[in-house]
TrEMBL record:
Homooctamer. GO terms for biological process: chlorophyll biosynthetic process; heme biosynthetic process. Residues 97-132 are annotated as: Disordered. GO terms for cellular component: chloroplast; cytosol. PROSITE patterns: D_ALA_DEHYDRATASE (PS00169). GO terms for molecular function: porphobilinogen synthase activity; zinc ion binding. Pathway: Porphyrin-containing compound metabolism; protoporphyrin-IX biosynthesis; coproporphyrinogen-III from 5-aminolevulinate: step 1/4. This is Delta-aminolevulinic acid dehydratase. PANTHER family: DELTA-AMINOLEVULINIC ACID DEHYDRATASE. Transmembrane segments: none annotated. The lineage of its organism: Eukaryota, Viridiplantae, Streptophyta, Embryophyta, Tracheophyta. It is found in: Plastid, Chloroplast. Catalyzes an early step in the biosynthesis of tetrapyrroles. Binds two molecules of 5-aminolevulinate per subunit, each at a distinct site, and catalyzes their condensation to form porphobilinogen.
Amino acid sequence: MAQSSTVIMASTILHAPCTASPSVKPLSCQNYVGLKPSSSVNLRFNCVTTTTVKAHQTRRLFVVKASETRDGIMKKLGLTDAECEAAVVAGNVPEAPPVPPKPAAPIGTPLVPSLPLSRRPRRNRKSPALRASFQETSLSPANFVYPLFIHEGEEDTPIGAMPGCYRLGWRHGLVKEVAKARDVGVNSIVLFPKVPDALKSPSGDEAYNDNGLVPRTIRLLKDKFPDLVIYTDVALDPYSSDGHDGIVREDGVIMNDETVHQLCKQAVSQARAGADVVSPSDMMDGRVGAIRAALDAEGFQHVSIMSYTAKYASSFYGPFREALDSNPRFGDKKTYQMNPANYREALVEACEDESEGADILLVKPGLPYLDIIRLLRDKSPLPIAAYQVSGEYSMIKAGGVLKMIDEEKVMLESLMCLRRAGADIILTYFALQAARCLCGEKR
């Protein structure tokens, strides 16, 4: 090959200099790592002769197409292992692809000495494979509990404040939705009933009707899906004509012990129907221990209790209350739900629930209370649950509709954050959608 010849990649055609252009320095293969021809690499050279400004002078153009530098899979030479080793010992080292050239920095990048760093954390983040290898937190459909709203009707009624969510007909729509969830690995649900107003009362007696909406639904689902894990909500607000989680005295005080008596009957009724986990969400004092005793007395020692341990009096519950038509008829729930400003109080609740026999501790809401999730995770050996509530769900949905955020990415990130904070399971209305994303489905 002539000294003035130039080897270039197919993306650029460069003409070698001639004597008519002495100011342009010739380029040499030796100056570019990876461009030196090798006997083991098949290079195609296209030689083109062109005429320079002076008629008697010519120059050559060589083009190497990057896509044709290899013939694909290398052919075996038929040598034994011993012959291959002998060849290497004798100095006949087989050719390998050349070292790739060092990528160039953009023009104008300052030349600076390397920082004297003994540790560069970015090294463990430089490729998708490395990032996957060192990922500390995983997210799986098995981590989700799918909250489902049910009603007595046969049609599925959309919930305006929660796009994509419905009050499901307990005999038809619910069964179909559970089947969809199971198809993508979500095998745990929690039921929330919309009770007809005519069945509501100040004492919430419908809550423990063995033939009520929730017990009937549990029996139906267990008949169709015996291995389905069914969580239930233990509280009086869906059944109370006052819309509170407990019995209301005439002066507006929520009665604690009398409410706990009703909750015990409700939990036993749900267990009798086949519930796997009963979940007192009322925040009455002493209700976990009383429910445990009531379940054990009726032979339901195998039924777990997931206590709403740190349930805050949050403004994020609005869409949920629309879904069940369970807004308090007066006042608020601040005398029994926790003050959002409090942190240490969550430990008090957790210690009580643990000592009374809770199997799972739940924090509600989820994302705004990551510090509480981490607190309970660090202080308790019990499984920790987080409830990504309706307000969190609706904000992400609204942001996605308005194209202000990427709904799918924010959804998955929010769920991962709950897991990272220490939640073992997450109650989320995104359960089906998120599971489909994790499984690679896009519908």
